[in-house]
Design goal:
By secondary structure, this protein is α+β, with helices and mostly antiparallel strands. It is built from seven helices and six strands. It is globular, with a radius of gyration of 18 Å.
Length: 185
């Protein structure tokens, strides 16, 4: 893991199967090292994968259980291929939705609502490539930025992986939280 995080051999960190466990480990190590110097947290939160780090920090499960969950999540998500994500910056959700609808981008969804004027789209690479020039011409759009991920995360294409992951989650014994966690689901 150290070699992966520090040296990134063969650029493996661009693959979700490697990136997710690495991110979880770095977050957990950072939390473990920093917690004695910090006042107690009022709550924890994490975006997407970050929610597992938040749950670990709050005491829902131990490090190893969290890593097992994250590895399996990454493996399942990594099996879904052919997708991509891109951030649209500078316009409202309504404009993003209308643009997708007007240009028949039915295979693209808003996957993340990051800010009032920043949304991440998820779908097939081809469909995102097709609508990129469309968004670049929309008044107010300040950017259509590809997200460096290896799949169409947070999109309907992930439904089979999510179903398999739910089965794994059902078997996990989640402990009582020492600190509240704000869910992003």
């Amino acid at each position: 893991m150290e070699e992966l995080c520090l040296e990134n051999p063969e650029r493996r960190l661009s693959e979700t199967v490697y990136a997710q466990p690495a991110i979880y480990v770095v977050n957990a190590l950072h939390w473990s090292a920093a917690q004695e110097d910090l006042p107690p947290a009022d709550f924890f939160a994490g975006h997407s994968l970050g929610e597992y780090s938040a749950l670990f920090a709050a005491g829902a499960f131990d490090f190893e259980t969290g890593l097992t969950l994250v590895r399996r999540r990454a493996e399942l998500m990594g099996q879904v291929s052919g997708g991509a994500m891109a951030a649209v910056i500078g316009v409202s959700e309504q404009i993003v939705e209308e643009t997708l609808k007007q240009h028949d981008a039915t295979g693209v969804v808003i996957a993340n609502y990051n800010a009032p004027e920043q949304f991440v789209l998820s779908g097939s690479r081809e469909e995102l490539a097709r609508i990129k020039p469309v968004f670049e011409k929309v008044e107010g759009v300040r950017g259509f930025v590809p997200v460096k991920v290896s799949g169409p995360f947070h999109a309907p294409a992930m439904a089979p992986a999510a179903a398999r992951f739910r089965t794994l989650l059902a078997a996990v014994d989640v402990g009582e939280l020492r600190t509240p966690v704000i869910s992003n689901v």
